[in-house]
What does this fold into?
Amino acid sequence: QSALTQPASVSGSPGQSITISCTGTSSDVGGYNYVSWYQQHPGKAPKLMIYDVSNRPSGVSNRFSGSKSGNTASLTISGLQAEDEADYYCSSYTSSSQGNVFGTGTKVTVL
Amino acid sequence: QVQLQQSGPGLVKPSQTLSLTCAISGDSVSSNSAAWNWIRQSPSRGLEWLGRTYYRSKWYNDYAVSVKSRITINPDTSKNQFSLQLNSVTPEDTAVYYCARSSGYYYEDWGQGTLVTVSS
It folds into this structure.
């Protein structure tokens, strides 16, 4: 099972918006509305930020939003803040496994 | 608020068995709506789902193809926890191991992570 493809790094200034892409195939991202996104600070466990493409769990800031088009999902962070600096991972249901496939990860830097 | 607390050794010798436990508070391992997963993370393999156990009138287990011949995940209802056993480990199994709860196609609660190093 191949990992989903994400850019290695994305950066932005405080207050700006950034978008992280996550590219898969019709067997995962493109075939189902089951994409999730995770934020991970150094030395910490991943934290669920978005599930089912565009839903936010309770307590997650509405500055985080998700979308999908074809085989590519996207996470947008608006009003970028210093605390948003972290690694971000996408994940998707896949028809080839009972567990999700994860993305390669994107390091977000706040300039 | 679900909390997952992991325990287990951080160093395992090659060819031996890696064993970790995840204690659950705020939910039940026998829940009919949750699944209990093990996921690992390493620089070479990234985040990798390993397997899960869940109860739907009876117990089920699913495992990743990459570890299917070596892995066992067991629930312990008396202690409200679940465990991971990975046999015949090699240095390639060195990773941070996480337990996680899922109630859909996502992982909403995670343990704190355990760095397991496979080395003699």
Notes: Strands of chain A lie at 9-12, 18-23, 35-40, 47-50, 64-69, 72-77, 86-92, 101-102, 106-110. The interface with chain B takes residues 1, 3, 32, 34, 36, 38, 44-48, 51-52, 57, 89, 91-93, 97-105 of chain A (CB under 8 Å). The two ends of chain A are 35 Å apart (CA to CA). Chain A has a mean pLDDT of 97.
